[in-house]
Amino acid sequence: MRLDKYISSQGKYSRSDVKKLIKQGLVSVDGRSAKSPELQVDPDSSLVVICGETINYKEHIYIMLNKPAGVISATDDKSKKTVLDLVPPELYRDGLFPAGRLDADTTGFVLLTDDGDFAHRILSPKNHVEKTYIATLADPISDEDISALEEGILLKDGYQCLPSKIKRINEKEIEIKICEGKYHQIKRMIGAVGNKVLTLYRAQIGGLPLDIDLKEGFCREITQEELGEITT
Ligand code: URA
Question: Strand, coil or helix: what is 96?
């Protein structure tokens, strides 16, 4: 891989930054000063240092965001704040996107990545990666409603939902796990039993809970170990 591509893919420096820094003698590969942005490097073995900092090359990045209400799960918007606006420069990369959208008024765990295959794996209902939500409801929920939702409710537009798992927290609050992510899915599921979602919070993706120390509006990188917890 070309040196400028290798460095710029990690987010911090653009290709033109790399070119300038090479000219200034601030980039080295395996201990030797780099002379050209076209120099070939091996992502698995080359030791690249830029401005005194060794590149810790990662093919992809996986970020946990605690989304506040009012932020939209888009990559770009003219007027509204997006989930990408909350990513600090040191974690930002071209090609980042939210792997699964939350409504603007839904809070909690959004996973951002530049790895399309991984996103597909966690989003496809076939792979049974459960997303866990806490919903507060306008009215008390009955055992019959819970059973209907758990069996797979038929939405008003004729869409047949897959089964879900529900735990009652109190009469107007539930934990609900679903493997699919249709538009307004939980709000429409709850609407189908004549109730209404007042607040919705995503607490967990697969086996990985949202870090309780991560304040609303903040992000951090997901570790390799945590990444494994998502799909197990
Ligand atoms: N279901 C919804 O209705 N909204 C969300 O944001 C996520 C799941």
Answer: coil
